[in-house]
Amino acid sequence: MRVLVTYASKNGSTEEIAEAIADELMAYGLDVECGSAHDADASDVDAVILGSAVYADRWLRPARRFLKEESDRLRGIPFWIFSSGPFGEQATSPTDDDLRWQEPPRVLSRAEALGVREHVVFGGRLPTEPHGFIENAMVRNTPDDARDARDWSAIRTWAASIAHELGAKERIGRPIVST
Asked: CATH assignment of 2-165, given 3.40.630.30, 3.40.50.1860, 3.40.50.360, 3.60.150.10?
Protein backbone atom coordinates (compact mmCIF):
# COMPACT_ATOMS: atom_id res chain seq x y z
CA MET A 1 0.00 0.00 0.00
CA ARG A 2 1.47 3.34 -1.09
CA VAL A 3 0.58 6.33 1.11
CA LEU A 4 1.19 10.01 0.45
CA VAL A 5 1.63 12.24 3.50
CA THR A 6 1.58 15.82 2.29
CA TYR A 7 1.45 19.14 4.09
CA ALA A 8 1.59 22.92 3.97
CA SER A 9 3.84 24.41 6.63
CA LYS A 10 4.87 28.00 7.21
CA ASN A 11 7.52 27.61 9.92
CA GLY A 12 8.25 23.87 9.90
CA SER A 13 5.97 22.68 12.70
CA THR A 14 3.37 21.06 10.43
CA GLU A 15 6.15 19.55 8.34
CA GLU A 16 7.57 17.91 11.48
CA ILE A 17 4.12 16.52 12.33
CA ALA A 18 3.76 15.12 8.80
CA GLU A 19 7.21 13.52 9.03
CA ALA A 20 6.29 11.89 12.36
CA ILE A 21 3.10 10.51 10.78
CA ALA A 22 5.08 9.20 7.81
CA ASP A 23 7.67 7.59 10.12
CA GLU A 24 4.94 5.85 12.09
CA LEU A 25 3.27 4.52 8.93
CA MET A 26 6.63 3.23 7.69
CA ALA A 27 7.15 1.49 11.04
CA TYR A 28 4.02 -0.50 10.14
CA GLY A 29 5.55 -1.53 6.83
CA LEU A 30 3.66 0.87 4.57
CA ASP A 31 5.32 2.46 1.53
CA VAL A 32 5.19 6.17 2.36
CA GLU A 33 6.10 9.31 0.47
CA CYS A 34 6.19 12.53 2.50
CA GLY A 35 6.48 15.99 0.98
CA SER A 36 5.11 19.47 0.55
CA ALA A 37 1.60 19.90 -0.85
CA HIS A 38 3.05 22.54 -3.16
CA ASP A 39 4.27 19.86 -5.59
CA ALA A 40 2.48 16.72 -4.37
CA ASP A 41 0.73 14.32 -6.73
CA ALA A 42 -1.84 11.74 -5.62
CA SER A 43 -2.11 9.93 -8.94
CA ASP A 44 -0.06 6.86 -7.98
CA VAL A 45 -0.98 6.38 -4.33
CA ASP A 46 -3.52 4.25 -2.50
CA ALA A 47 -4.18 6.65 0.39
CA VAL A 48 -3.47 10.28 1.34
CA ILE A 49 -2.96 12.17 4.57
CA LEU A 50 -3.09 15.94 4.06
CA GLY A 51 -2.24 18.51 6.70
CA SER A 52 -1.86 22.24 7.00
CA ALA A 53 -0.93 24.89 9.46
CA VAL A 54 -3.85 27.16 10.26
CA TYR A 55 -3.50 30.93 10.22
CA ALA A 56 -6.48 33.21 10.80
CA ASP A 57 -8.82 30.19 10.64
CA ARG A 58 -7.55 29.21 7.18
CA TRP A 59 -5.40 26.45 5.79
CA LEU A 60 -2.35 27.53 3.82
CA ARG A 61 -2.84 27.91 0.08
CA PRO A 62 -0.79 24.84 -1.05
CA ALA A 63 -2.97 22.50 1.05
CA ARG A 64 -6.20 24.13 -0.12
CA ARG A 65 -5.02 23.89 -3.71
CA PHE A 66 -4.05 20.21 -3.30
CA LEU A 67 -7.49 19.40 -1.88
CA LYS A 68 -9.15 21.12 -4.84
CA GLU A 69 -6.88 19.90 -7.64
CA GLU A 70 -6.74 16.29 -6.41
CA SER A 71 -10.46 16.08 -5.57
CA ASP A 72 -11.27 13.50 -8.25
CA ARG A 73 -8.50 11.21 -7.02
CA LEU A 74 -9.33 11.73 -3.34
CA ARG A 75 -12.94 10.66 -3.95
CA GLY A 76 -11.70 7.21 -4.92
CA ILE A 77 -9.18 6.49 -2.15
CA PRO A 78 -9.08 6.65 1.64
CA PHE A 79 -7.80 9.99 2.90
CA TRP A 80 -7.45 11.86 6.17
CA ILE A 81 -6.75 15.49 7.03
CA PHE A 82 -5.14 17.25 9.95
CA SER A 83 -4.58 20.83 10.99
CA SER A 84 -1.96 22.23 13.31
CA GLY A 85 -1.85 25.55 14.99
CA PRO A 86 -3.21 26.00 18.49
CA PHE A 87 -0.56 26.74 21.11
CA GLY A 88 -0.33 28.41 24.47
CA GLU A 89 -1.35 27.41 27.95
CA GLN A 90 -4.89 26.37 26.94
CA ALA A 91 -3.61 24.22 24.07
CA THR A 92 -2.60 21.45 26.46
CA SER A 93 -6.20 20.89 27.58
CA PRO A 94 -8.57 21.81 24.75
CA THR A 95 -12.30 22.06 25.26
CA ASP A 96 -14.99 21.26 22.72
CA ASP A 97 -16.04 24.90 22.47
CA ASP A 98 -12.50 26.19 21.85
CA LEU A 99 -12.68 27.31 18.21
CA ARG A 100 -8.91 26.94 17.80
CA TRP A 101 -9.41 23.16 17.94
CA GLN A 102 -11.88 22.99 15.08
CA GLU A 103 -11.07 22.49 11.43
CA PRO A 104 -11.52 25.53 9.19
CA PRO A 105 -15.15 25.17 8.03
CA ARG A 106 -14.55 25.57 4.28
CA VAL A 107 -11.80 22.95 4.27
CA LEU A 108 -13.90 20.59 6.35
CA SER A 109 -16.98 20.90 4.14
CA ARG A 110 -14.92 20.27 0.99
CA ALA A 111 -13.14 17.29 2.58
CA GLU A 112 -16.40 15.81 3.85
CA ALA A 113 -17.92 16.12 0.37
CA LEU A 114 -14.97 14.09 -0.92
CA GLY A 115 -15.36 11.38 1.73
CA VAL A 116 -12.58 12.20 4.20
CA ARG A 117 -12.21 9.41 6.75
CA GLU A 118 -11.28 11.64 9.67
CA HIS A 119 -10.10 15.13 10.50
CA VAL A 120 -8.07 16.05 13.57
CA VAL A 121 -6.42 19.14 14.98
CA PHE A 122 -3.00 18.92 16.61
CA GLY A 123 -1.36 21.58 18.71
CA GLY A 124 1.22 23.67 16.94
CA ARG A 125 4.47 25.42 17.74
CA LEU A 126 5.39 29.05 17.64
CA PRO A 127 8.30 29.81 15.33
CA THR A 128 11.74 29.88 16.93
CA GLU A 129 12.62 32.84 14.71
CA PRO A 130 9.46 34.94 14.39
CA HIS A 131 8.98 37.25 11.43
CA GLY A 132 6.83 40.33 11.55
CA PHE A 133 4.94 42.17 14.23
CA ILE A 134 2.24 39.55 14.88
CA GLU A 135 4.59 36.57 15.25
CA ASN A 136 6.96 38.60 17.44
CA ALA A 137 4.07 39.64 19.68
CA MET A 138 2.79 36.06 19.93
CA VAL A 139 6.24 34.77 20.93
CA ARG A 140 6.81 37.62 23.37
CA ASN A 141 3.42 37.07 25.06
CA THR A 142 3.56 33.28 25.30
CA PRO A 143 5.50 31.59 28.11
CA ASP A 144 8.40 29.42 26.92
CA ASP A 145 6.78 26.19 28.12
CA ALA A 146 3.57 26.93 26.17
CA ARG A 147 5.16 27.66 22.79
CA ASP A 148 5.09 24.04 21.59
CA ALA A 149 1.72 22.31 22.01
CA ARG A 150 2.40 19.33 19.75
CA ASP A 151 1.44 16.05 21.43
CA TRP A 152 3.76 13.51 19.82
CA SER A 153 2.03 10.58 21.48
CA ALA A 154 -1.36 11.64 20.08
CA ILE A 155 0.19 12.17 16.64
CA ARG A 156 1.77 8.69 16.64
CA THR A 157 -1.42 7.10 17.95
CA TRP A 158 -3.45 8.71 15.17
CA ALA A 159 -0.96 7.55 12.54
CA ALA A 160 -1.04 4.02 13.98
CA SER A 161 -4.84 3.99 13.77
CA ILE A 162 -4.56 4.91 10.09
CA ALA A 163 -2.01 2.15 9.54
CA HIS A 164 -4.45 -0.35 11.08
CA GLU A 165 -7.30 1.00 8.95
CA LEU A 166 -5.11 0.44 5.88
CA GLY A 167 -4.60 -3.19 6.86
CA ALA A 168 -1.28 -3.09 8.72
CA LYS A 169 -1.39 -5.54 11.59
CA GLU A 170 1.58 -4.72 13.78
CA ARG A 171 4.52 -2.43 14.06
CA ILE A 172 7.56 -3.94 12.41
CA GLY A 173 9.89 -0.95 12.50
CA ARG A 174 11.85 1.00 15.03
CA PRO A 175 10.20 3.13 17.69
CA ILE A 176 9.64 6.74 16.75
CA VAL A 177 11.62 9.35 18.64
CA SER A 178 9.88 12.64 19.36
CA THR A 179 11.14 15.64 17.46
From this structure: 3.40.50.360
